[in-house]
């Protein structure tokens, strides 16, 4: 199936990044959110990113205008009526996702693929809210979306090979690398990343080293672009805790128990970069 029209649900950090890379690849994009202000903020971020590309000589001013021209605002899920694929990047809450996917199933064309950018919620369970579970799939982009090369593609229990193939081809058109995995808690990325971050927080909690030392050891010793505590701040400590809970519940194994220090920071409202304070302070 040839994809032309893409609808992205959620104009936050991930959703706006996904809309940007889709528009840059030539797709028509509807960027949906509940409020116009959220769309405006998303478009402002996209415009800033594209302007940097123009400044760096990677794009002309005309190309930037054309990319922005391919993105339109949507405040109603019914706008999915002409979508070939919908990529949902709303909040990580199963009830909300069920409600969105149920509506999308009613309003999107029969052929449309319904994808979720969820970082850890089961695709099979999201798909169960629809009458087309074979056309539901995970498309897990990494943050920051315009920079990161990976899209982890998650097959739900019922996802067909044809749907997988279409999404794989679309990902290649976005100049990203699709990597396939099955629907299991945390998929592959967060099953491996989050326990590492959680262990770094335990290491800090136990006073083994300072936060700077932990990050330096992983940055300089393992060539990670960011240390695990800096990365946790970047992802959001609430998100890290949420994903650890998904792993802990999903596997029932104590090796996934979230660090008490992580819980304490989340309770304090120290959620990382987005709130100005996590393991580090941000101005
Ligand atoms: N949006 C768009 N572009 C961005 C950006 C953003 N938010 N942040 C950085 N960039 C661009 C910069 O503009 C710069 O581009 P130029 O080549 O035009 O200069 C380029 O990325 C490099 O940025 P910097 O020089 O400022 O800084 P850096 O070299 O330290 O790179 C980084 C920044 C790419 C974020 C790098 O630190 C990195 O790769 N960090 C790790 C990111 C990571 O692990 N992401 C996955 C998180 S987990 C996840 O997303 C999934 C989940 O489910 C939790």
UniProtKB/TrEMBL annotation:
All copies of domain 3-hydroxyacyl-CoA dehydrogenase NAD binding, residue ranges: 5-183
The keyword Oxidoreductase is annotated on this UniProt entry: yes
UniProt source species: Planococcus shixiaomingii
One Gene Ontology MF term: 3-hydroxybutyryl-CoA dehydrogenase activity
Top-level lineage group: Bacteria
Keywords: Oxidoreductase
E.C. code: 1.1.1.157
UniProt family annotation: Belongs to the 3-hydroxyacyl-CoA dehydrogenase family.
Name of one Pfam family that matches: 3HCDH
Protein name: 3-hydroxybutyryl-CoA dehydrogenase
Pathway: Lipid metabolism; butanoate metabolism
Domain spans labelled 3-hydroxyacyl-CoA dehydrogenase C-terminal: 186-282
Signal sequence extent: none
InterPro entries given in the database record: 3-OHacyl-CoA_DH (IPR022694), 3-OHacyl-CoA_DH_CS (IPR006180), 3-OHacyl-CoA_DH_NAD-bd (IPR006176), 3HC_DH_C (IPR006108), 6-PGluconate_DH-like_C_sf (IPR008927), 6PGD_dom2 (IPR013328), NAD(P)-bd_dom_sf (IPR036291)
